[in-house]
Amino acid sequence: MSIELENVKKININAFQNDLISWFKAEQRDLPWRKDRDPYKVWVSEIMLQQTRVDTVIPYFNRFIEWFPTIDDLADAEEDKVLKAWEGLGYYSRVRNLQSAVREVKEKYNGEVPSTPEEISGLKGVGPYTAGAILSIAYGIPEPAVDGNVMRVLSRILSIWVDIAKPSSRKVFEEAVRELISHDDPSSFNQAMMELGALICTPTSPACLLCPVRDHCQGFEEGVQSELPIKTKKTKTRNVELASAILVDEKGRILIHKRPSEGLLANLWEFPTIEILHPLQHEREQVVALFDETLDLKISLDQIIGQIEHVFSHLIWNLKVYVGKINSDIKESSEWKLVPEDEITDYAFPVPYQKMFKLYQDI
Questions:
Q1: Distance between CA 56 and CA 114 in Å, rounded?
Q2: What is the rounded distance in angstroms from the CA atom of residue 97 to the CA atom of residue 101?
Q3: What is the pLDDT of residues 226-265, one digit of tens each?
Q4: Catalytic residue of the set 4, 6, 27, 46
Q5: DSSP string spanning 95-123?
Q6: CATH superfamily label, 238-361
Q7: What confidence tens digit (pLDDT) does each residue in 74-108 have?
Q8: Buried b (16+ CB within 10 A) or exposed e, 153-166
């Protein structure tokens, strides 16, 4: 056992498991993916919950399962419909990977989510945490499911002073869970650890007086719970200046563009957008010229109707929003479409463009 995990030996593991699981069974939140242990639903919920709050996920999960109730339904669905179901959740590579993996499950495993660590970890987008969550919650296999929540909780309980921002630290916490996990009820144990991190052992001001495992917590006993976990700060985000326009043709249709199949927001729709690399002196005229040079679009712009800031994990978009007219014929294709205003919502747009369309509707 590593030096960091010597503190596991100080814990009465049976008492810790009982206190944790009893609390979870009495206090757990009523969440739709807990209604049964369907591995597919557990999988969908875990992918949605990456980088996203539970309250935000609930309506998305319900709609997603309504649209794609089985693995076959998701495997056979058009990607545009899948992206529309995910619209607004962000981190869209999650759902593209999910659909790819589900197709593999359909073809390779006859539609049954695999129940071994080796097979499930081979699926696209299924990392160690997701694999452990599905195996433990759906199949009752005592595998660790270690995410940021669990690392925070265990760093306090076991007084572990390693930097949880470092990928190598995950192994320390996985080793700890293997020592602590209940083999009788691994599903409740892992969910309880997640629940404890979400409700009690929060990033700031942990509610130690309400904690069901406070008597086992070495961080609390040492009075260092607020100093843990150790986590280095992320690198700075990059600011990107953009101009985007809602452009209307003579029939009142709006021009939309499909983003490339690789990279940020892949295969989602947007309103025509250009990046502004240098400060503009005569803004509107230069934006018109940039649309011509960059996108080969002949346009005229009426006014700026707003500015939208959208924060990604690694960059910040500062998006100036224009309205204008198209002054040349547009040849429609799989990437460019002219769409009546009342049909815009049929297409999957990232959040900043949804906000942009709302600005336009509110004029």
A1: 28
A2: 6
A3: 999 999 887 788 999 999 999 999 999 999 999 999 889 9
A4: 46
A5: HHHHHHHHHHHHHHSTTPPP-SHHHHHTS
A6: Nucleoside Triphosphate Pyrophosphohydrolase (3.90.79.10)
A7: 999 999 999 999 999 988 999 999 999 999 999 99
A8: bbbbbbbbebebee
Q: 332 an active-site residue? A: no
CA dist 58 and 53 (Å) reads 9
Q: Name the phi and psi angles at 206, rounded to 5.
A: -60, 140
Token duo for residue 279 = 């400060």
Task: State percent of the chain over pLDDT 90.
Answer: 87
- Between β-strands 315-326 and 299-311, what pairing exists: parallel, antiparallel or unpaired? antiparallel
- Asked if omega into 203 is within 30° of 0 (cis), the reply is no
Residue 354 in 3-state DSSP? helix
Domain ranges of the chain: 3-222, 238-361
* Planar angle of CA 310, 316, 319, nearest 5 degrees: 55
The Cα–Cα gap between 122 and 274 comes to 38
CA–CA separation, 44 vs 329, rounded Å? 43
Residue 226: how many other CB atoms lie within 10 Å: 11
**Lookup: tokens for 264:** 């940020």
Which amino acid type is present at position 335?
E
**For 3-222, which CATH class?**
mainly alpha
Three-state secondary structure call for residue 301: strand
Spatial CB neighbours of 342, under 8 Å, sequence gap ≥ 6:
none
Distances in Å between the Cα of 6 and the Cα atoms of 11, 142, 171, 173 are 10, 21, 15, 12
**Structure-token pair, residue 148:** 């940021």
